[in-house]
Amino acid sequence: MKVVFLGTPGFAVKVLQCLLASRHQVAGVVCRPDKPKGRDLCPTAPEAKVFALDRSMPVHQPGRLGAEFLAWLHEVNPDALVVAAYGKILPPDVIHFGRFGCINLHPSMLPHLRGAAPVQWTIANGDPFAGVTVMQMDEGLDSGPILLQQRCEVFEDDTGETLMDRLAVTGGNLLVEALDALEEGRLVAVPQDEAGVTLAPILERDHGRVDWTAPAADIARRMRGFYPWPGSFCCIPGAKVLKLFPMPRVLDLSAAPGTFLGLRDGHLCVACGQGALGIPEVQLEGRCRVPAADFLKGARWQEGLLLQ
């Protein structure tokens, strides 16, 4: 089967690698335009573009998927468009292009966790299992009929990053299996059960702000799920931002939420709404990431200090 691949970040690269190792032909890679990054805001190519150019593959970065893009699709004439973390809503003319239309890989067990950040919310919500779904795209939000699914365990030390990497490989292999079956006419799409729909909204920076009134176990899951972005942070006296890094420990300690409880086994301990949290590494704004013990040597905090 000849396909055009649409994907942008590292997740997409791992899926693309699975496709390239299969019998299917990838006729081109489509990803989002370069974005300014860093202090000097230099245009930076997305990971899928770098990967594809290193392999001399055709790369397209349309600002919009309009007439010019459709003309290119007609020229290439793929059997299907394969989508994995492209990062932009596709217009109907693109969704229904080709003999098999758009085949999308979504990193959740649909209809559970439709939306932009299913992997991160899987961990933050405390779900024991994650999964991947290969679906036939329609014009709704991750609402197309299901072609194949595979469930995966969430480990206690998973972060958004590690789980995303694992699901990309699992999903890439499942996607290849789905393309094989579609080409051979032995796969039937099954409509999603709308009664089971839950959402995984796009993450914003403020999702990383720690609410110390929440139970320590809930905060710990959010720290893991939202790593590396948006991360987790709080404010300390002087209005400075302190970034907090996994893997946190949940401790059986009690005090007013946000109270600094000292250093225990190398962890910076803070009371929560239920229990306390031990944080192994921190980063004060404008400084480097360091072990909590090293940070406290310089900070000289007194127990009882309140974090916000």
CATH topology of the largest domain: Rossmann fold
Radius of gyration: 22 Å
Task: Give the second-level CATH assignment, the architecture of the largest domain.
Answer: 3-Layer(aba) Sandwich
CATH superfamily of the largest domain: Formyl transferase, N-terminal domain
**What are the secondary-structure elements, in order, as H or E?**
EHEEEHEHEHEEHEEHEHEEEEEEEEH
Number of helices: 8
Structure commentary:
The protein is an alpha/beta fold and 308 residues long. The protein has 8 helices and 19 strands. The protein has helices at residues 10-20, 47-54, 67-76, 92-95, 118-124, 160-183, 216-225, 292-299; strands at residues 2-6, 25-30, 35-37, 42-44, 59-60, 80-83, 102-106, 114-115, 129-136, 146-153, 199-200, 232-236, 240-245, 249-251, 260-264, 267-271, 276-279, 281-284, 290-291. The strands form 5 sheets. A 7-stranded mixed sheet has the order 5-2-1-6-7-9-10. Strands 12-13-18-19 form a 4-stranded antiparallel sheet. Strand 18 and strand 19 (290-291) form a beta hairpin. It starts with a strand and ends in a 9-residue tail after the last helix.
